[in-house]
Specification:
The complex is a heterodimer of chains A (about 250) and B (about 650).
Chain A (H helix, E strand, L loop, with lengths): L2 E7 L8 E7 L8 H14 L22 E2 L2 E2 L21 E5 L8 E3 L2 E2 L2 H8 L21 H11 L6 H5 L6 H12 L8 H14 L10 H5 L7 H15 L1
Helix pairs in contact in A: 2-6, 3-5, 5-6, 5-8, 6-8
Chain B lengths: L3 E2 L16 H8 L5 H4 L3 E5 L3 H13 L2 E5 L17 E2 L11 H11 L6 H21 L24 E2 L5 H19 L2 E4 L2 E9 L2 E9 L5 E5 L2 E4 L20 H8 L4 E2 L4 E7 L22 E5 L16 E2 L1 H5 L9 H13 L11 E4 L1 H7 L1 H19 L8 E10 L2 E2 L12 E3 L17 H21 L9 H21 L5 H16 L5 H21 L11 H25 L23 H4 L1 E6 L6 E6 L14
Parallel strand pairs in B: 1-20, 2-3, 2-10, 3-6, 10-18
Antiparallel strand pairs in B: 4-5, 7-8, 8-9, 11-17, 11-19, 12-16, 13-14, 13-15, 15-16, 19-20
Classes of the chains: A alpha+beta (about 250), B alpha/beta (about 650).
The structure holds flavin-adenine dinucleotide, iron/sulfur cluster and FE2/S2 (inorganic) cluster.
């Protein structure tokens, strides 16, 4: 199949950036979206052009490193799918596809489709952990966990930190990501001692990074490749309120 | 390629005495560093996977001044995140007869008697603490309704000792280590350098004292100094281009340390996983693993006739060859990884493979669906079927899956002693980057165990013993400058070729060559061919590669070109190592060394040793470390 790509090119954080049009031919429906870009990049290199920079690593939908806005939707229109797991068979021959980076003030563009998501790490640094030094842990069976709790904690813990939720949110809120982390630990007995201080510190850090507030539009869960549910945000807010009331 | 033999390695630093007491003994003899002095000692940890992440967090917590590096945008994305199946531990929570000794025994045997007993025993001992540590951190392992941890059994073991978090065990364990690491970053004990690639090791006065890195965003070349350097940079399976590894996995850090004097051990041991989704076209960039558990119900077959292009449903029963069931009537579709992989290769080599390029075999659920019903199959394997459909566009409930073996894990790596120290004092190597513990094969769920054992429990003790003699004073300027110049000139050289082929096109060609000549089956002839072809291709690379852009910017072409250049050198050593080892063991199958039934034939008389290669200006130098089996008796494996 043949496609017309409109790709956001930006040399660096200070460059204004612009859309550039490329034609790609002989795209196989079995290619992943990133492989289609690989093929275009091979051509650009040989033509002496700068290939399109994009982030990726595992290409298995688990590391969270890939991510671009495809036809206006973070990770593309296919639900619950990362960009690396999106395949070209979902596009029509002759179609025009626009490709842009995550857009949010706390995620500055590094180059082309690569953005800086280190704000997420700083949210974790604020308290997204259980303080337990290596070597001092009690036997794993000493604290039983209800299976339902363990499963729900797991569901929240599957967030891959890709940032699609931020890119999709009209307010540029990082609530879904932060709530996923908070929910994971707050559902487990191990997370209880630091539960409220954690929620407070992480939410405050999220605000300090310049992410917008949550107005419950739900765009985040719609694009989340791991299907993190909106309830996590309610849980986060409840813990945050409790922490502040103390 | 010429090589010479050097003196045997005699001292591995493993304490003598009863095996169950050796680690205790070593811990007690290790010197301690006084807390006030820890702050004055700097440790560099390269890599933030399970090994590096857990090590950096623990060392930071102990009070050392730690500098951590990774090439991704955040430490949470290291390749360990992709591990699916689980992690072993000798907890014996099931009371099914598991013990530290049994885990030790299974691992040594599974490694085809090419691992060091002392290390493996310690691994089994420490495995117990790993689970405790992870659970305390909030890793959401699967649980039973009673609230206790669930386990499952995995290949190569008859007990249920594998702890898991759905199909995402690696992710959850890595997030645990990452969170511990971020906590230390917040506490100021660890400084994190993401998007930084280590390009050389600084060795001064015979000790590892720092690294040269490239800031992958600005292109700036930086020097970082320390009292010790830890490499936790993962495996090198990407030398084959197509593998189950993440795209960025590479050999650069360990290879450049090798050039500086660290021995490279058993480079030829590569684990091939039998059930991956096959290659579908020339553009393909990676291979995806399908869980081995599918072979519990799926039946593997190919058409009897060569080049049979009929749709699978049109091929009648008597024209199908269920070759695993035919050749291995006792184990059938459940033979171990190396056996299943080779059998698939053989039928494809005969021209009976299916799918594009004839490199695939069917994994058919028709009988299972007829027997159990579609619902039951869906319950058991639904997520895997969905993943398959997403990638291939085919519905495995209606047509059989196609699978093919793929490169998965490298058991070779830098040689380390019992303390995890390489042959360069002050250079420690942990996780998949070192050679230790697994032998010629790795059982499922044991790589995660090793990475975390090294990082949380072993290294923090043994490194302290080394550092007790520190701080080691100022680093010789000349040594730093020399390393920096070497890095810069390599980058300049890559940029100045300006040829007509991309780095990826060379990588693909090298990978194909390695797969064909040094893959699932090796022969003297194929290895000699590879050893002829690799230098030619490398020469072409240095004359004809095209690296666009400049050194002073985010330049992914330059990054790749540097890694491919190192893969050429490593590939050559892998083939040489495979050529010299004229026996078959684990992931190394030399066609000349098989028994009458076509099974791998070990040669314990001549090869019960680790091959540790030293970089020499006139070709590699082979040192042997003799492996002694005091506790597990060497026996031939059989699956018929
Ligand atoms: C698909 C898949 C499934 C698997 N499933 C299992 C399983 O179920 N159970 C099991 O036990 N094992 C499994 N494995 C194997 C296991 O995941 C790996 O062996 C293990 O995670 C390796 O961990 P590591 O910490 O040594 O290295 P990695 O996790 O690979 O980390 C390497 C680190 O080094 C950094 N790095 C590399 N080079 C440089 C450089 N030059 N400069 C700076 N940084 C650098 C990277 O940024 C990264 O942080 C699986 C592997 C794959 C591919
Ligand atoms: S919540 Fe979903 S979209 Fe947001 S970072 Fe996590 S996985 Fe990505
Ligand atoms: S590259 Fe890892 S999630 Fe897409």
């Amino acid at each position: 199949m043949n496609l017309t790509l409109k790709v956001w090119r930006q040399n660096g954080p200070d460059d204004a950036g612009r859309m550039v049009t490329y034609k790609v031919e002989d795209v196989s429906p079995d290619m992943s979206f990133l492989e289609m870009l690989d093929v275009l990049n091979e051509r650009l290199i040989l033509e002496g052009d700068d290939p399109i920079a994009f982030d990726h690593d595992c290409r298995e939908g688990i590391c969270g490193m890939c991510g671009m806005v495809i036809n206006g939707v973070a990770h593309g229109e296919q639900r619950a799918t990362t960009t690396c797991q999106l395949h070209m068979r979902h596009f029509e021959d002759g179609a025009t596809v626009t490709i842009e980076p995550w857009r949010a003030a706390p995620f500055p563009v590094v180059k082309d489709l690569v953005v800086d998501r280190s704000a997420f790490d700083r949210i974790i640094q604020a308290g997204g952990f259980v303080s337990v030094p290596a070597g001092s842990a009690p036997d794993a069976h000493s604290v039983p966990v209800r299976k339902e709790d363990a499963d729900a904690a797991f569901d929240a813990a599957t967030c891959i930190g890709c940032g699609a939720c931020v890119a999709a949110c009209p307010n540029g809120s990082a609530s879904l990501f932060t709530a996923a982390k908070i929910t994971h630990l707050s559902l487990l007995p191990q997370g209880q001692p630091e539960r409220l201080s954690r929620a407070k510190a992480m939410v405050d850090q999220m605000d300090a990074e310049g992410f917008g507030g949550c107005t419950n539009t739900g765009e985040c869960t719609a694009v989340c490749p791991k299907g993190i549910p909106l309830e996590t945000i309610a849980r986060m807010n409840a813990d945050y309120l409790k922490a502040n009331a103390k | 390629m010429n090589y010479t033999e050097g003196p045997e390695i005699r001292d591995t630093k493993a304490p003598a005495g009863p095996i169950e007491e050796r680690w205790e003994k070593r811990k007690f003899s290790a010197k301690l560093v006084n807390p006030a002095n820890k702050r004055k000692l700097t440790v560099i940890v390269v890599g933030t996977g399970l090994a590096g992440g857990s090590a950096a967090a623990t060392l930071g917590e102990l009070g050392y001044n730690v500098k951590s590096f990774c090439y991704q945008d955040t430490p949470r994305r290291a390749h360990s995140i992709a591990a699916q199946g689980g992690i072993n531990a000798a907890k014996n929570y099931r009371g099914d007869g598991d013990s530290i000794y049994r885990l030790f025994y299974d691992t040594v045997k599974g490694g085809d008697f090419r691992a060091r007993e002392s290390n493996v025993y310690r691994l089994a001992q420490v495995s117990v603490n790993i689970i405790d540590q992870a659970v305390a951190q909030g890793v959401p392992f699967a649980r039973e309704y009673g609230g206790l941890l669930d386990t499952r059994s995995f290949g190569g073991a008859q007990v249920s000792r594998t702890f898991y978090a759905r199909g995402q065990t690696g992710q959850q364990l890595l997030l645990g280590a990452y969170q511990a690491l971020e906590r230390q970053i917040a506490a100021g004990t660890v400084t994190m350098h993401t998007r930084h690639e280590m390009l050389d090791l600084i060795v001064a006065d015979g000790r590892a004292r720092g690294i040269i890195v490239r800031d992958m965003v600005t292109g700036e070349i930086e020097r970082h100094l320390a009292d010790a350097v830890v490499l936790a940079t993962g495996g090198y399976g990407n030398v084959f281009f197509l593998s189950t590894n993440a795209k960025g996995c590479n050999t650069t850090a360990i290879w450049r340390a090798h050039e500086r004097g660290a021995y490279f051990a058993n480079p030829c041991y590569t684990q091939i996983h039998p059930t991956c989704i096959p290659v579908s076209g020339e553009y393909q960039s990676k291979l995806t693993l399908m869980s081995e558990s599918l072979r519990n119900d799926g039946r593997v077959w190919v058409p009897l006739r060569k080049n049979d292009t009929r749709a699978p449903g049109d091929i009648p029963e008597d024209e199908r060859d269920y070759y695993l069931e035919r050749i291995y009537p006792a184990f059938g579709n459940l033979v171990p990884r190396d056996i299943a992989s080779r059998a698939a290769k053989n039928v494809c080599d005969e021209g009976r493979g299916v799918g594009p390029g004839g490199l695939g075999v069917y994994l058919d659920f028709r009988d299972a669906i007829n027997r159990l019903g579609r619902d039951a199959v869906e319950k058991k394997y639904g997520n895997l079927f969905e993943m398959y459909e997403r990638i291939t566009g085919e519905n495995p409930y209606e047509v059989p899956m196609r699978i093919y073996p793929a490169v998965h894990y490298t058991m070779g790596g830098l040689w380390v002693d019992y303390d995890l120290q390489s042959t360069i004092p002050g250079l420690f190597v942990i996780g998949e980057a070192n050679f230790s513990d697994h032998g010629a094969n790795r059982l499922g769920a044991s790589a995660l165990m090793q990475g975390l054992a090294d990082g949380y429990f072993v290294l923090p003790t043994t490194l302290g013993d080394y550092l007790a003699a520190g701080p080691f004073g100022d680093v010789d300027d000349a040594a730093i400058a020399e390393a920096e110049i070497k890095v810069r000139s390599k980058i300049e050289r890559l940029l100045s070729v300006n040829g007509t082929r991309t780095p990826d096109s060379f990588h693909r060609e090298l990978g194909k060559l390695m797969w064909d000549y040094c893959g699932m089956e090796r022969t003297e002839e194929s290895l000699r061919k590879a050893l002829e072809r690799i230098p030619e291709l490398r020469a072409e690379f240095w004359q004809n590669v095209k690296v666009s852009g400049t050194a002073e910017e985010l330049n992914q072409v330059l990054e790749r070109a540097g890694r491919v250049a190192d893969f050429f050198d490593l590939a050559e050593l892998m083939c040489l190592d495979a050529l010299v080892r004229t026996e078959s063991c684990g992931g190394h199958f030399r066609a000349e060394s098989q028994d009458a039934d076509g099974e791998a034939l070990r040669d314990d008389e001549n090869f019960a040793h680790v091959s540790a290669w030293e970089w020499g200006d006139n070709g590699p130098i082979l040192h042997k470390e003799t492996l002694e089996y005091e506790y597990v008796k060497m026996t031939q494996r059989s699956y018929k």
